[in-house]
Task: inverse folding
């Protein structure tokens, strides 16, 4: 199929360090290309991809200091509108902005929602666009929209290239690790309090978004003086693999209904148990007592820190590789594409049969005429 992937323009694809949605889009795009689909990625111009790259801005917006990022994002949608007739399906990861284009988009559009849906202003907006095809990344993500008649077409859990990125660790470092982003929703303050209460070292490897710098300065930074707490800062995949492999557990006591949380499956891939709260998607990702512990109170979280000997790290890794692989995620999205554009999917499959088995071509009707291959002169291919 001819598939457009619309990525947020804030970071490059893939991101060098922090970047959840961007990692998922990269993994999805690369596997779709590997499976023979013609994929065009609408993303920041510094992105590296096996697909055709349509640059929507010269550099990631978080690197440019753009005064009005919404203007760039609106232009991204206009570029998608202009080229929409070239695709069999358009897969958006940029929230609701493409919906405003309405019927100007000349191909089936599906939107994967990667963020929170519990903001009150979203309910009337989603209700006004109730016909849009939506994919959730967990069943829990849908709960805030209960009662709004939306067109949910699937739940597809996120997947990453876990097997070769993360390795089964021993946990012999003996420390706890907090990994990802500093924000009130991720609750590093509670993580520090629990680690100190448990008498265990805590390594904090995290990124501070400029919008959260005041929270970090006033709420988190003063707590880093405790001798059990070590600030590591932002790390890349190699650093994450090393930190997670040596940790006795990932301690991420989220204080909100996390829609998914890639850090949890990354930890499991390293064989590292998860200690968190039973909020949002966590009960979907973590088997209580099998892959970690979920507790609401500080006392419960501290108890979990001392109950980890019962967790089999090999079972944690098996869970991640079996349930959250790129292959499983892309299988789910191919099902979505097939349901949204069955004739185009069938045409693509027939074209593949003709290419692979040329002697059978006389018995296979030609698929519907394909649109133009799509702006190759105006796009670039990165590798």
Result:
């Amino acid at each position: 199929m001819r598939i457009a992937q619309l990525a947020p323009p804030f970071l490059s694809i893939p991101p060098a360090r922090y970047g959840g949605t961007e990692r998922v889009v990269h993994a999805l795009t690369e596997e779709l290309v590997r499976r023979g689909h013609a994929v065009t990625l609408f993303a920041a111009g510094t992105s590296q991809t096996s697909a055709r790259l349509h640059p929507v801005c010269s550099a990631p917006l978080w690197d440019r200091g753009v005064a009005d990022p919404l203007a760039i994002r609106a232009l991204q949608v206009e570029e998608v509108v202009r080229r929409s007739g070239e695709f069999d399906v358009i897969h958006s990861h940029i929230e609701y902005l493409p919906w405003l284009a309405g019927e100007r988009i000349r191909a089936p559009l599906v939107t994967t929602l990667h963020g929170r849906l519990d903001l009150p202003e979203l309910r009337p907006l989603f209700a006004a666009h109730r016909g849009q095809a939506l994919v959730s990344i967990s069943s829990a993500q849908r709960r805030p929209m209960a009662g709004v008649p939306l067109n949910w077409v699937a739940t597809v859990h996120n997947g990453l290239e876990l097997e070769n990125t993360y390795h089964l660790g021993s946990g012999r470092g003996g420390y706890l690790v907090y990994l990802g982003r500093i924000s009130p929703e991720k609750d590093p303050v509670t993580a520090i309090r629990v680690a100190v209460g448990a008498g265990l070292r805590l390594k904090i490897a995290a990124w501070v978004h400029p919008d959260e710098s005041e929270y970090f300065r006033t709420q988190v930074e003063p707590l880093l003086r405790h001798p059990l707490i070590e600030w590591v800062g932002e790390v890349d995949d190699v650093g994450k693999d090393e930190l997670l492999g040596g940790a006795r557990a990932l301690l991420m006591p989220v204080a909100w209904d996390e829609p998914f949380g890639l850090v949890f499956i990354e930890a499991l891939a390293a064989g590292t148990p998860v200690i968190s709260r039973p909020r949002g998607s966590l009960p979907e990702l973590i088997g209580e007592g099998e892959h970690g512990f979920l507790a609401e109170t500080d006392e419960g979280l501290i108890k979990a820190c001392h109950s980890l000997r019962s967790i089999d790290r090999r079972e944690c890794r098996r869970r991640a590789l079996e349930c959250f692989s790129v292959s499983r995620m892309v299988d789910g999205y191919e099902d979505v594409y097939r349901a949204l554009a069955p004739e185009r999917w069938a045409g693509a499959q027939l074209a593949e049969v003709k290419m692979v088995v040329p002697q059978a071509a006389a018995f296979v009707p030609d698929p519907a005429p394909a649109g133009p291959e799509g702006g190759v002169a105006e796009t670039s291919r990165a590798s």
